[in-house]
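Hypothesis: this fold can be encoded by more than one sequence.
Test: take the C-alpha cells below, design a sequence, compare later.
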C-alpha cells in the first residue's frame, strides 16, 4: 500500500468513491491532453489540485477529498505529453476505483499569477498552455444538501446525477 497522501477536489459534496474515467474537456478536444486513459486525477497537495482548475472558476467552492487505501501498482505518473501542466500540478493518475474521505472545503479567490507551458499540438502547432496559480481560502462546508424519503433513499436530483456519473 501507498503511504503518500494524495488529494482530489470536486464541486460535489458527498463523494465516497471515485471511478476512473476518460476526461472530456477542451484540453482533450484540442489534442493537448491524453483523452484515452481512464483515471482518477490526484495530487500531493491541495494547491497542486487547485493549479489544475481552469481560469473561469473564481468564487467556486470545491470540496477537498483525501484518497484512502491507495496501492502503488495503480498509480501512474503521467508525462507532459499526457498532462501539459504536470510539472506545476504534480498530477498523478489512479487507475482503479478509489475510496475518498471529505476533509474540508475551499473557495477560489482568483489567480495570483499565470505560467505558460509551451506545447506542440498536432492540430494547432505551438500552443502556450496557461497554468493558473489561484489563491483560495478554507471555508466551513455548508450542510450537505440531501433529502431522504421515508425509506431512507436519497431523493435529491443533484445527488442522483452525481451517483450516476460515478456509477453508484
Amino acid at each position: 500500500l501507498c503511504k503518500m497522501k494524495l488529494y482530489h477536489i470536486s464541486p460535489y459534496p458527498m463523494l465516497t468513491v471515485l471511478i476512473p474515467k476518460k476526461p472530456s474537456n477542451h484540453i482533450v478536444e484540442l489534442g493537448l491532453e491524453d483523452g484515452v486513459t481512464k483515471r482518477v486525477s490526484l495530487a500531493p497537495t491541495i494547491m497542486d489540485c487547485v493549479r489544475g482548475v481552469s481560469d473561469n472558476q473564481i468564487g467556486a467552492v470545491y470540496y477537498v477529498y483525501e484518497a484512502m487505501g491507495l496501492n502503488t501498482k495503480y498509480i501512474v505518473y503521467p508525462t507532459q505529453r499526457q498532462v501539459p501542466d504536470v510539472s506545476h500540478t504534480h498530477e498523478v493518475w489512479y487507475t482503479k476505483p478509489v475510496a475518498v474521505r471529505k476533509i474540508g472545503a475551499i473557495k477560489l479567490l482568483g489567480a495570483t499569477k499565470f505560467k505558460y507551458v509551451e506545447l506542440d499540438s498536432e492540430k494547432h502547432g505551438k500552443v502556450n498552455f496557461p497554468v493558473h496559480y489561484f489563491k483560495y481560502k478554507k471555508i466551513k462546508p455548508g450542510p450537505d444538501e440531501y433529502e431522504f424519503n421515508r425509506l431512507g433513499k436519497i431523493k435529491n436530483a443533484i445527488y442522483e446525477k452525481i451517483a450516476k456519473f460515478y456509477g453508484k
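The helical segments are 26-29, 46-51, 86-89, 157-165. Residues 145-149, 154-159 have pLDDT under 50 and may be disordered.
Hypothesis status: open.
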